[in-house]
Amino acid sequence: TELNLRRNQVEYLSSIDTLPCLQRLFLSNNNLKTFESLDCLFRSKSLTELAIDANPVANEMYYRQVVLDSIKTLRHLDLKRVTDEERRQAWIVARKEEERAAEELRREQATGERL
Asked: Residue 70 burial (CB < 10 Å; 0-12/13-18/19+)?
């Protein structure tokens, strides 16, 4: 199943993950600004092709890696085939971010204990 929402001024997505047969979703040229606005896509079990280029979120650092790590079923992102190397890089970026967040939390907890 395919859904084309290109050029519709979409700012936030909701319940897309409840469409169990949705495989192709086209959201190019909208107004999606944050990864949070894509959150329901990250829960999708069926998406194989996704286009979200020409949205503000596509300018975020590590945009492609974050999306690929969050949606493991994707074979095409922004009309470009996803390679095994890209998947590996996405995994590495995600693990580094997790480590950074864990270290920041440890520092905050240590600071709080000293007060």
From this structure: middle
Q: pLDDT tens across 42-72, in order?
A: 999 999 999 999 999 999 988 999 999 999 9
CA 91 to chain centre: 13
Strands 24-26 and 76-77 turn out to be unpaired
- Show the 3-state SS of the chain: CEEECCCCCCCCCCCHHHCCCCCEEECCCCCCCCCHHHHHHHHCCCCCEEECCCCHHHHCCCHHHHHHHHCCCCCEECCEECCHHHHHHHHHHHHHHHHHHHHHHHHHHHHHHHC
Cα-Cα-Cα-Cα dihedral sign, residues 43, 17, 28, 72:
positive
Instruction: Tell me the two tokens of residue 2.
Output: 């395919």
| pTM of the predicted protein model | 0.85
pLDDT tens-digit map of 8-45: 999 999 999 999 999 999 999 999 999 999 999 999 99
